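Our platform keeps sequence and structure together, in a single record for each protein. Such a record has a labelled line for the sequence and another for the backbone structure tokens. Nothing more is needed to write down the fold, since each code stands for a local backbone conformation. For reference, a complete record is included directly beneath this paragraph:
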Amino acid sequence: MRARMVRHPTRRLEPTLHLPQAAATPTTALRVVLGTILLGFGLRLALAGSLGLGVDESYMVAAGRVLRLGYFDHPPLSWWLSAGAARLAGSEAPWVVRLPFLLLFAGSTWLMFRLGTALFGERAGMWAAVALNLAPVFSIAAGGWVLPDGPLDFWLLAAARCFVRALTGGRWGWWLAAGAAAGLALLSKYSAGLVLAGAVFYLLTQPVHRAWLRRPQPYAAALLCLAVFSPVLIWNAGHDWASFAFQGSRANAEHFLPFGPLTVFGGEALFLLPWLWLPLMVVLVRGVRAGPTSWRTWLPCCLAMGPILLFAVIGFWSKHVLFHWAAPGYLLLFPPLGAELERLAASRPTLVRRTLVGTLALYGAAIAVLVAEFNFDLADRLLPLARAEMQARDWTSLRTALAERGLLSPGRLIGGVGWQETGKLDFAMGGTAPVICLNADSREYGFAPGMAEHIGADILIASAKPITAAALAGQGVRFDTLQPLEPVDVMPGGTLFLTLGHRLHAP
């Protein structure tokens, strides 16, 4: 009798790991995550309709009305999302332009659950998703504001999820999906590159998965990533690489700051909540100490280290590190944090329960005060608070006030004295009047018709501070005369000063 040869299945490039049995059924974890998504979305949607757009949001919505392949500050995806929502709905109401970002954060919560489940089990994935919703920098800022961070977080999580499936399954589809998601992350914000560099570092250092570097899939994924990102390259090539130069200049050296990194870490802790930031740093240190052989902890650490360490190091010589810049790094540490929270919930359930309830109570109190103040002006006599509210309220009453005074003649040109105020003015006018930025730092407004195109024109200038010839001259702006007009109250305790500049001179 002829012997039959039995073919063994191809061995996968994945170390064997026996996960502990979850204490709760999968249905329980799934229900918690779905409940978190639905409840969180409802609350964020209500909040989005209760508050006006912030400075950066107004600027992005207004300047993003003109669709381009790229923009001065950031890649175009977030600008396209707000513009697309406004055009589909025929409205720039705050909840409308914020809606895509609310939906993306709901998706980010689900992706965090799936990523945590793939790496550490379903209960860990559940805790990772819940913890993500407790971190203000993710759940409030990235979770519902018109900013690049929401799309960035969603596509980074999608890329990480596909990357894990690609590593453990090896199918071409997962590699290409990871490349496409990585490209969309780069199309959201440049800092995605730091996380993607961590994926390359992982492949170079992990002894089993390093074998993928001898196969074509990772390189095909990289080419697809570059193709998705190509609109940004095309725009920059046609604009003297302005966006890349601007972002690179933000890390310019000033002088040595020995405690700069501590300031950076302290700010990041506040943005994340200190009782979340510290455990995240603990899991990072533990993962680094465990090293590449423990691939399920090594992978999140590789993805996270770039943003967290780079911006801390930049703190040694720059005061201009914004605390949310490192958020993509912390984002990828939530899956191992979920595993730690799973163990802590089993050993010290009272501590976990009290921390969760206390954090939710803190959120509720802060949001209640914020909404009450913005809608009922409970503290309108507090001048510093009123000044802050000027930046967070919409100035849409300005359009009506100008029309009532006969100051909105056809073609009336309106000027702001900085890119922040220009964005607020532009959003308030709703595209009914041309708005220019009378400032050397004009950001995206530098690529729209500006001062050079309006030499000799009369310009109505609006600002939250009184306008002086000396202040304008400091920005290279001169008029024949400046005529102060009656100010406009856009909110209780908040005034816009109006000045008519006669005949703009060439800078």
In short: The beta strands are 414-416, 435-437, 459-463, 479-484, 488-491, 494-504. Residues 1-24, 381-386 have pLDDT under 50 and may be disordered. Residues 349-376 form the longest helix (28 residues). The chain has two domains: 26-362, 395-504.
